[in-house]
Amino acid sequence: MIQNHQKKNVQISAVAGWVPDYVLTNEELSKMVDTSDEWITTRTGIKERRILKDPSKATSDMGSEALKLLLEKRNISADEIDLIICATVTPDMLFPSTACLIADKVGACNAFGFDLSAACSAFLFALDCGQKYIASGIYKKVVIIGADKMSSIVDYTDRQTCVIFGDGAGAVLLEPSEEEGIIDSILKIDGSGSQHLKMTAGGSLNPATLDTVKKGHHYISQDGKTVFKFAVTNMANVSEQIMKKNNLTGNDIDWLVPHQANLRIIEATAKRMNIGSEKVMINIGKYGNTTAATIPLCLSDWEDKLDKGNNIILAAFGGGFTWGAVYLKWAY
To answer: Hey, which residues are catalytic here?
Structure first.
């Protein structure tokens, strides 16, 4: 029976990121599809992305590498973890969950875990979910992993999608604290957008057949213009909403950590929030869109520039449609 506990503050106490070694540049892509470095850079802001080339490796391998780095940084052992939530749309397989596989690979023998699917917003959804387990007093150490092997569902003959995505993983550790940490979140979904960004086959509606494979229905399908329009509007709206809800102005925000989907979407969000580019974490140029991994990878890349007490807004938009924002204070 779950006991009643006094609600606790929850902080991110450590962050780590991991990306594969192989770098897929715009120049190399231009030899695969009709595109160019100039075309990709001006439309997306992406110069290169990382690809997990080893066919025997999958999302759980990237997630477990990120988690190993996280444990090392925090100087704790895997058996201290209570819960692992893996945010992903590219699970190793439909079941068992990728969280199960990660727990096994790192030796998290006392953890329970599950996968959470919300496309590019999944890390925020998982963060919100995980912090509630600690806030309730049930658990003390919860790991949130955002990991995606997007190269496994990208059609490298489709210019619209193959230039955007890369592979990677990021992880954060959540722990209870006396001080404020994760303060607020606004999370949204709109299933009417499902036709504009999806993978048609592989689920119970269209199980895998020779025909679905031949038609390329196991790859990402995207109506780029519609997705861009929705993303710009909703990611900016939700970021503005969470600021107003918490009586914040652009001057109060130390960092915006946006999902790395497109440089123009990021710039539009920052403009709506009335914050300068110097306060925006951007690494889309070197990683592309790693889906659920973009936000923790940003936090990992910028960790040495973060100061205790920094006001941070995390914002994302993804297929579904899904979108949201989280407001937190940095813990260290």
So the answer is: 120, 259, 289
Dihedral sign from CA coordinates of 247, 251, 254, 258: positive
Q: Is 331 helix (H, G, I), strand (E, B) or coil?
A: coil
**CATH says 183-329 is which class?**
alpha beta
Element (H, E) at 106: helix 98-106
Tell me the average pLDDT across 308-328. 97
Q: What is the pLDDT of residues 22-81, one digit of tens each?
A: 999 999 999 999 999 999 999 999 999 999 999 999 999 999 999 999 999 999 999 999
Sheet with 112-116, strands from edge to edge, namely: 9-18, 167-177, 142-149, 83-87, 112-116
Q: Tokens 């150490």 map to which residue?
A: 141
Q: Domain 9-181 is of which CATH architecture?
A: 3-Layer(aba) Sandwich (3.40)
Peptide bond into 20 cis (omega under 30): no
Is it true that 9-181 and 183-329 share their CATH fold? Answer: yes
Between CA 258 and CA 269 the distance in angstroms is 8
* C-alpha span between 195 and 199 (Å, rounded): 9
Every domain of the chain and the residues it spans: 9-181, 183-329
Burial (CB count within 10 angstroms: exposed 0-12, middle 13-18, buried 19+), residue 83: buried
